[in-house]
Design brief:
The structure is a single chain. The longest helix is centred in the first third of the chain and has 26 residues, at 40-65. 32% of the residues lie in helices and 5% in strands. The protein contains 14 helices and eight strands. The chain has a two-stranded antiparallel sheet with strand order 1-2. A two-stranded antiparallel ribbon has the order 3-4. Strands 5-8 form a two-stranded antiparallel sheet. The chain has 461 residues and is mainly alpha-helical.
Length: 461
């Protein structure tokens, strides 16, 4: 009897070791089926029927996580005048405050399940399906200008417009800063790019811009039976996500992670100031904008699946001319003007308020922001792992397995007020949310006034 008890104890102990070392889930396959077995009519009927429930489920998640009301800053505006949303929008658990949370250790927050829901990774509106998804205002404009339809029969974009970048965004050129915004208040498409930029750009740059507004096949928008557009589609353009060389907050899933539930939602980053960046892709660490341009066309447009890309119509760009021309235009997209900043990216004391000056001191000091976001463009051009998973237990959220994010590139903060929502997956709706997130993750214990000062500083960048 005694020996059996010892043996049972040993077996139990070994089972615990095995459990602790069990690797994260691995999918059955990394490859999508090439030869579809379901007709388009059947797919359309099935997914159209499921659409209302999927959309409502994602809306409910957003309502649970955030205060989605429209609360604009009376002073802070984007480059063309759209109001910047203000205030912390992430909801806290009952009987919890931001101050009390900041005094707790990561292990205590994890043990008590107090990590705010809005700080967990944000899933794609239909994470199991994924794919490019565009705001309604962009769909309407592109349909009006080019007759292309970027709507999906299986899904709608539901984040409220007031949390998104202004539309259309301004365009600033590093080569002609004297011109200011050269967009003329228009969305640049294949219909108008030449008339707007002839006489401003050289011929190579104009050709690069033409390629950036030329549609090519993509996973959800193509001519095959397993597309997600009602009619066969010419595809999407680079500027359907990076509209006017900026962003409209179109969303997608990264193509370089498997299985599906581990894939990160991606919030389209701006291309402004891409010339000062040395890494491209939130985790891929591609070394040049040419590499990234080619990668997007060959793989990212098709969820990282080169087999499906060949089936749906991959756009194989010629590196020496087409890729080069596209990159040449992208590399002259400038940051928006920041009237209160000097040449070194720091505030001019004669123009800044006392609140902004205090925020700058905190940014480069106690708040540790400059450890990654150093001036003058507020990036260190490298990658960091925030290890936010130490604050929560992994869990499934609408098809997204919330666990460690790993290393993410440091995005520039110049012009940051023009580029909501924030973090690589858009989980933070305002700059106030972003400061609260880093106050917890970096264990800074900032006061309410200090946090407000940092937000005020970031709005000057």
């Amino acid at each position: 009897m005694y020996n059996r008890l010892i043996l049972s104890a040993i077996i139990f102990a070994l089972s615990q070791v095995v459990t602790a070392q069990t690797p994260a889930p691995i999918g059955k396959t990394s490859y999508a089926p090439v030869a579809g077995t379901e007709s388009f009519a059947s797919t359309l009927a099935r997914m159209s029927k499921a659409k209302p429930g999927i959309v409502e489920k994602h809306k409910a998640l957003l309502e649970q996580r955030y205060d989605l009301s429209n609360k604009g800053d009376s002073q802070a505006k984007m480059s063309r005048g759209k109001t910047v949303q203000t205030g912390v929008r992430v909801r806290l658990a009952r009987d919890t405050t931001w101050d009390s949370l900041s005094q707790m250790s990561p292990s205590a927050i994890r043990a008590q399940g107090l990590w705010p829901e809005g700080f967990f990774p944000l899933p794609h509106p239909n994470h199991g399906e994924g794919g490019m998804l565009f705001p309604a205002f962009h769909i309407d404009e592109i349909k009006k200008q080019t007759k292309r339809d970027l709507s999906r029969f299986d899904l709608d974009y539901v984040m409220p417009d007031h949390f998104l970048p202004e539309y259309p965004p301004a365009i600033f050129l590093t080569t002609r800063p004297d011109l200011g915004d050269v967009s003329q208040g228009k969305v640049i498409t294949s219909n108008n790019f030449f008339e707007l930029f002839n006489g401003i750009l050289n011929p190579k740059q104009i050709e690069g811009l033409r390629l950036l507004v030329t549609p090519t096949a993509q996973q959800q928008f193509n001519a095959t039976h397993d597309r997600r557009s009602l009619e066969p589609s010419l595809g999407v353009t680079c500027f359907d996500c990076h509209v006017n060389g900026h962003t409209n907050a179109a969303t997608h899933l990264v193509g370089d992670i498997r299985p599906q539930e581990f894939r990160h939602r991606i919030d389209t980053p701006t291309l402004r100031g891409v010339n000062i960046q040395r890494l491209f892709g939130s985790q891929r660490a591609l070394k040049t904008v040419e590499d990234f341009t080619e990668f997007e066309q060959r793989a990212a447009y098709f969820d990282g699946d080169h087999v499906i890309a060949a089936k749906k119509g991959v756009n194989v760009l010629e590196r020496g001319s087409q890729v080069h021309f596209m990159a040449e235009f992208e590399s002259i997209l400038g940051f928006p003007p920041a009237p209160k900043l000097r040449w070194d990216g720091k505030l001019d004391p004669r123009k800044a308020t006392k609140t902004e000056m205090r925020g700058q001191k905190l940014f480069f000091g106690k708040a540790q922001c400059a450890s990654c976001h150093s001036g003058p463009y507020y990036t260190d051009n490298t990658m960091h792992d925030l290890q936010a998973e130490r604050f929560f237990k992994p869990k499934m959220i609408n098809g997204r397995y919330a666990t460690a994010d790993g290393m993410i590139k440091t995005f520039p903060l110049r012009g940051i007020k023009d580029s909501p929502p924030y973090l690589h997956d858009g989980r933070l709706l305002t700059l106030d949310d972003t400061v609260e997130f880093f106050n917890l993750v970096l264990e800074l214990k900032l006061s309410k006034q200090e946090k407000a000062d940092i937000v005020a500083f970031m709005k000057t960048l």
